[in-house]
């Protein structure tokens, strides 16, 4: 069995990290594993293990003939059986399949705005979905949506998984006081709703001015980024809120923090939440996507209403006031994630689907 993961970039996003994680784990399970990034390389390239073969296409547009030919020849030369296409990379996968009909295509749906699926463009996706052999969805909402809207019989819910990388590069030193750091691991995108988080954190800092907030994730330097920085200045948060951009040493960063927060308007099953758990952080997350599947009780963390700065600030303040609760929640979540979202069982499920597709 030979499998290639295809992803548009290697920026530090959720879909990108899943693609790299799967490629690495397949190689460690004696499957010849490949990964192709179509448009951009990025910070996650260094996370690809040496036993995974790598291809970069530098694709310039949807119908980049040279990129399509390069991928087609690469797949033919290496006798690859399965294309595992992540997010929007399904399009080039289907174009290659048109020339090599025996290829199996599995599409992995990571759509982050699963709370707003009525706004999702569907025309092209529905048309090409006839060529998919299987769909993997990162949450049950997306699974149900695919079953209702796309032309595929086989759809499976496969939760995301994370793994601690003790050999990750980088040595980021966080600012602020030790034992008084809140972290939000999320690219600076509107769906992550850092605006509500900043308004909530202002209320927290009015009571606990020695605490700090650390935003880890790609800064696209766009209008949303500018708006966040304007709000920071308006709320006088410049000395307590720090923006770091993308970082390679996520686990090392999380070990320097005390509370993990996600304030998203929409999610799938966020890798950040799983990573918080593996770092034994107590977490506060909004009730979107599959977050409640992970934080299934108050013994594991706190679920709050999205887009509500008051309930978010109250939840953070309650944790700050109770160190023992913070430790208990962090330890409980670590145990839960290790058992329910461990890589071994999830990778076995993916490999089983590969085998079924090839039958």
Give a description of the structure.
The chain folds into 2 domains: 2-161 and 342-358, Rossmann fold (3-Layer(aba) Sandwich), CATH 3.40.50; 181-340, Glycogen Phosphorylase B (Rossmann fold, 3-Layer(aba) Sandwich), CATH 3.40.50.2000. The protein has 13 helices and 13 strands. The chain has helices spanning 14-28, 65-77, 90-99, 123-128, 140-149, 194-207, 223-234, 250-254, 271-278, 291-294, 309-320, 323-340, 343-358; strands at residues 2-9, 32-40, 53-56, 82-86, 104-109, 134-137, 155-157, 181-185, 212-216, 241-245, 259-262, 283-286, 302-304. Strands 3-2-1-4-5-6-7 form a 7-stranded parallel β-sheet, with helices on both faces. A 6-stranded parallel β-sheet has the order 10-9-8-11-12-13, sandwiched between helices. α9 links the parallel β11 and β12. The chain starts with a strand and ends with a helix. InterPro entries: Glyco_trans_1, Glyco_trans_4-like_N. Residues 176-334 form the Glycosyl transferase family domain.
Topology (elements, then pairings):
Blueprint: E1 2-9, H1 14-28, E2 32-40, E3 53-56, H2 65-77, E4 82-86, H3 90-99, E5 104-109, H4 123-128, E6 134-137, H5 140-149, E7 155-157, E8 181-185, H6 194-207, E9 212-216, H7 223-234, E10 241-245, H8 250-254, E11 259-262, H9 271-278, E12 283-286, H10 291-294, E13 302-304, H11 309-320, H12 323-340, H13 343-358
Parallel strand pairs: 1-2, 1-4, 2-3, 4-5, 5-6, 6-7, 8-9, 8-11, 9-10, 11-12, 12-13
């Amino acid at each position: 069995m030979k499998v290639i993961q295809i992803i548009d970039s290697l920026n530090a996003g959720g879909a990108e990290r899943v693609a790299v994680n799967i490629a690495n784990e397949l190689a460690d399970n004696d499957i010849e594993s490949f990964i192709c990034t179509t448009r951009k390389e990025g910070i996650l390239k260094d996370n690809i293990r040496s036993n995974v073969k790598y291809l970069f296409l530098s694709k310039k547009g949807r119908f980049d003939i040279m990129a399509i030919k390069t991928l087609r020849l690469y797949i033919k030369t290496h006798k690859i059986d399965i294309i595992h296409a992540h997010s929007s990379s399904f399009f080039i996968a289907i174009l290659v399949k048109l020339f090599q009909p025996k290829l199996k295509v599995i599409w992995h749906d990571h759509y982050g705005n699963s709370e707003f699926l009525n706004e999702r463009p569907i025309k092209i996706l529905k048309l090409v979905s006839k060529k998919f052999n299987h769909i993997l969805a990162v949450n049950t909402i997306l699974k149900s949506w695919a079953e209702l809207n796309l032309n595929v019989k086989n759809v499976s819910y496969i939760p995301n998984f994370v793994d601690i990388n003790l050999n990750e590069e980088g040595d980021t030193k966080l600012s602020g006081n030790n034992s008084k750091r809140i972290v939000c691991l999320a690219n600076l995108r509107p769906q992550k709703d850092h605006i509500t988080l900043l308004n909530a954190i202002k209320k927290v800092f009015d009571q606990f001015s020695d605490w700090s907030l650390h935003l880890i994730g790609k800064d696209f330097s766009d209008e949303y980024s500018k708006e966040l920085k304007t709000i920071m200045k308006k709320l006088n948060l410049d000395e307590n809120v720090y923006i770091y951009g993308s970082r390679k040493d996520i686990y090392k960063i999380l070990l320097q923090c005390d509370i993990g927060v996600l304030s998203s308007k929409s999610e799938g099953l966020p890798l950040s939440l799983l990573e918080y758990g593996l770092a034994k952080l107590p977490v506060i997350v909004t009730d979107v996507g599959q977050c409640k599947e992970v934080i299934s009780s108050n013994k594991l963390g706190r679920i709050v209403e999205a887009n509500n700065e008051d309930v978010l600030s109250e939840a953070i303040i309650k944790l700050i006031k109770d160190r023992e609760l913070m430790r208990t929640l962090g330890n409980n979540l670590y145990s839960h994630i290790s058992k329910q979202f461990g890589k071994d069982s999830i990778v076995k499920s993916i490999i089983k689907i590969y085998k079924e597709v090839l039958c």
